[in-house]
Amino acid sequence: MYRTHTCGELRASDEGKRVVLAGWIERIRDLGGVKFIVLRDRYGRTQIVVNPDSPAYETVTQLSREDVINIEGVVRKRPPNAVTSELTGEIEVLAEKLNILSKSDLPPFYPGDDVSEEMRLKYRYLDLRTQRMTNNIITRHKLAFAARRYLSENNFLEIETPYLTKSTPEGARDFLVPSRLKKGSFYALPQSPQLMKQILMVSGMDRYFQIVRCFRDEDLRADRQPEFTQIDIEMSFVHMEDVLQLAEELIRSMYAEVGIKLPEKFDRISYEEAMEKYGSDKPDRRYGMELQDLTQFFKSSEFKIIQDVLSKGGSVKGFKARIPMSRKIADEYSEFVKNFGLGGVLWFRLENGQIASTTVKYLEKEYTEISKAYSMEEGDVFILAAHDNRERLSEALGALRLKIGREHVKVEGFDALWVIDFPFLEWSEEENRFVARHHPFTMPYEEDINSGVELSKVRAHAYDMVINGFEVGGGSIRIHSRELQEKVFDIIGLTKEEAQEKFGFFLDALRYGVPPHGGIAFGLDRLAAIAVGADNIREVIAFPKTSSGTCLLTNAPSKVYPSQLEELGITLKE
Amino acid sequence: MYRTHTCGELRASDEGKRVVLAGWIERIRDLGGVKFIVLRDRYGRTQIVVNPDSPAYETVTQLSREDVINIEGVVRKRPPNAVTSELTGEIEVLAEKLNILSKSDLPPFYPGDDVSEEMRLKYRYLDLRTQRMTNNIITRHKLAFAARRYLSENNFLEIETPYLTKSTPEGARDFLVPSRLKKGSFYALPQSPQLMKQILMVSGMDRYFQIVRCFRDEDLRADRQPEFTQIDIEMSFVHMEDVLQLAEELIRSMYAEVGIKLPEKFDRISYEEAMEKYGSDKPDRRYGMELQDLTQFFKSSEFKIIQDVLSKGGSVKGFKARIPMSRKIADEYSEFVKNFGLGGVLWFRLENGQIASTTVKYLEKEYTEISKAYSMEEGDVFILAAHDNRERLSEALGALRLKIGREHVKVEGFDALWVIDFPFLEWSEEENRFVARHHPFTMPYEEDINSGVELSKVRAHAYDMVINGFEVGGGSIRIHSRELQEKVFDIIGLTKEEAQEKFGFFLDALRYGVPPHGGIAFGLDRLAAIAVGADNIREVIAFPKTSSGTCLLTNAPSKVYPSQLEELGITLKE
């Protein structure tokens, strides 16, 4: 038997037991001829003592870090002054036998060494040996299992949908898989099982979920992966309220499993309110610093820049912050908002009870009124900007708010909320047409459609869950009428023929008795990253890819044999 | 609210309750002007009664089968003579309101109609509405969840491994995914996460599992799918015994979850014994009819055909069966074994206490001795064959035994066993080299290797679980020494350069401290099919593909736009 106990298991109450432990050597020290080994496995660390008179002594002198060994010996209490805070810190094992199971070469780095992420990914098996990464993987496992348990207990069936499926080029770019049996044809890897889960509702499955890999062939941003994991959910005979309640309870129970308490009830704010107050549809409210509409204070201002904006129907917005301020910092913030098309920021501070600002001579009256209206205290800063496009103004200030928050505001705890009533459509400059903001299977507000408001104002029965400023999930009530679905395809510019070619099988399914249904999908990677406090999802993925889509461990993607391409009927373009 | 209860929920104790139900119309009957609707959802069926004086009556006349409706009404007990055995058979709901949620066109068939599998797959959403298919999907869900629960409770972590990974052309053919960011390079979809799970052991994860999709681009046999689901398991610091015990308990607990009791202890037989007794490495022992070595009975026989075989060192084997027999049937069986290279079968029957056979005049003495040795009773038949290659003889008779068993023996219950001690290698005629029988990461018996037996006789620490004649899982103890792994690569004919190119990252990982480890992988599709008694895994997959790899629902694989190929840097070969 390789071991009787793990390295995280023995306690003072095990004193006197004969045990076998196995694991990696994390450290060896020699104290006056006695060898002390810290033996490590996934479960913890136990100190092993090898005396010079032990039969194990000869072997121990050949050992080095990261060797895999097992030892047999007797548990004894440590002397009081040697007890550590580790769970196994009260005991040590006096080794009588010691086997080397696997010698380690000198590794390129030791687990936990401060090395580049590139090295960590290339030798992921060394990196994963750290307690931090081990805990990240354990937390991810616990979250996924808790999700499955909660959903199973609530009558959801986990149903697997195909990974080799049909290319439906609406949304992101598909990964394609050439078919060998049907040359010239391709499968696509699913961007999400959206249509399949809706078809499962048409099939009467009533409540579906799946923790499922999804694939998007996009130019990768720092925190995106070409494959990512979704907790995908769909329910029949429900309204938005049902989905929100279920989803909230799900996430609460998952986080509770890893010791995180989320609010009993998540706040709900509309997309419009989120944009107004935070300039973002995924606000992190923990930073405070809500955006304020300050336009009224400037109605009679003679400050030219602002007057120009207001005369075009623009707005002035700003937020109060408690941060250092200087001309240099203001310049930096101005540069920052210029990326969003703004001219810059204004600012003032309350200093010795007085307004202090580089623009105080032009705007003292307005600043004073604002400082009173928002109960500014000594040292508070107000940052303002003006623009004729109110949404752009909000976005720019929202982004600045976030930047300032991250740099200056120490936050803790968890802010969880729903953003609802998203716009149904958004204008795509690139394609010169409306596209569905969520996806084209989302139910629009029929009252908006029927009342004939302009298309950009039509709201959708769509909702996002936001935790600590990250969109962790999003969903919608779906269209369950073929007629409405065809109308929506028409609105987003698909001809009847295109709609039939891309989505014909789905439109067919809508003919034969469809329950009203809706759902949501959560990003498991993101949920896990938030739970462990990691700022990058790569920290909670065992084998992630780099931003160029490479696996540094295996070197995928890689060249293949010409015969493989031959069989698939494809050739590389020169 | 669309419903207060499901269609499987109401009982006599709910009498008098006002309820809302939603579902599909399975049947409408008119009895003397009163309308009776059988309303169906995933949970069951409830009878709805609509009286002519009900406000719902006008709507009910517009309804047809498979429409989706909801109704509001009051639960009442059925008259005693109308009670059915259905769970909701004691009650019905007297409808007062009725809404049509979705009209159904006339479907191409009604759920449960006897139509071709092609139709069932094309309109899968209609097929999945049957109770049988719904139950199959539910059983599959329960099995998967039970597996996860059992493994989680036993300290296994579910860890996701990449789907976009490296092509390792050892084994089956890979599905390839062209990379857009690195043109000319390809990801491969994993045939199994074998190397990744071993690397997770090197990472110290100790106990890993994953219910994971695997992909093999093979010419599909009737019961194969290009993507299939595996319960993949790996454990550190274990011997074969540990894996077998864990795996057995896992499968028992999964099957218990769906009401199937497997034996407390699975028998274990060696590969050699399985081949000797059943001519198969996945025997279904429920048929009885073990193969017997009859060579000794023919040592002094003068029957030429047999003497020829024996003089070449061949064998005679056969089995006792209780089946109809005639010259015609014997001819059919002879034809059958000719496919395996045998000359044909001999047979005799005990009839009125006498040996009856077309060959009785040549072999009466031998037949008589056999009939006594195997205690043949009136009507028993013995089928025999001879061949100089004993393994081929066993295989042929094993296949004939299985054919006869399926045609003539009524079996029930579950036969679960382990087949162990597989040969490490098998000779590939095609490639003119030894290949690994399980895979090249399997630990060979070191005593066999060191004792210098011929390579074909070296045994492996490999094991298969067999239930009812299907290999439901297989695994092995793995090589954890880089030196031995390199030696095995050499034995199977990989040059050092090839080994480095294909498996270099894995050989590297073996340098830095590797725990002894082993594992197993189960086919979830097969386990589910056996549990529901389906003879094809397509019956337990929501959206399976045909044997040509086509999804009849979506028509995947399909043509893509030239621009998509352009972006990937590939072209179709003319």
From TrEMBL, chains A, B:
Keyword Ribonucleoprotein: no
UniProtKB keywords: Aminoacyl-tRNA synthetase, ATP-binding, Cytoplasm, Ligase, Nucleotide-binding, Protein biosynthesis
Any one Gene Ontology molecular-function term assigned to this protein's record: nucleic acid binding
UniProt signal peptide: none
Residues annotated to bind ATP: R216, D217, E218, Q225, E471, G523, L524, D525, R526
Catalytic activity: tRNA(Asp) + L-aspartate + ATP = L-aspartyl-tRNA(Asp) + AMP + diphosphate
Top-level EC class as recorded in UniProt: ligase
PROSITE patterns: AA_TRNA_LIGASE_II (PS50862)
One example of a Gene Ontology biological process annotation: aspartyl-tRNA aminoacylation
Chain positions recorded as L-aspartate binding sites: E170, R216, H438, R478
HAMAP family registered for this protein in UniProt: Asp_tRNA_synth_type1
Primary role: Catalyzes the attachment of L-aspartate to tRNA(Asp) in a two-step reaction: L-aspartate is first activated by ATP to form Asp-AMP and then transferred to the acceptor end of tRNA(Asp).
PANTHER family: ASPARTATE--TRNA LIGASE, MITOCHONDRIAL, ASPARTYL/LYSYL-TRNA SYNTHETASE
Quaternary state and interactors: Homodimer.
Recorded family membership: Belongs to the class-II aminoacyl-tRNA synthetase family. Type 1 subfamily.
Name the UniProt record assigns to this protein: Aspartate--tRNA ligase
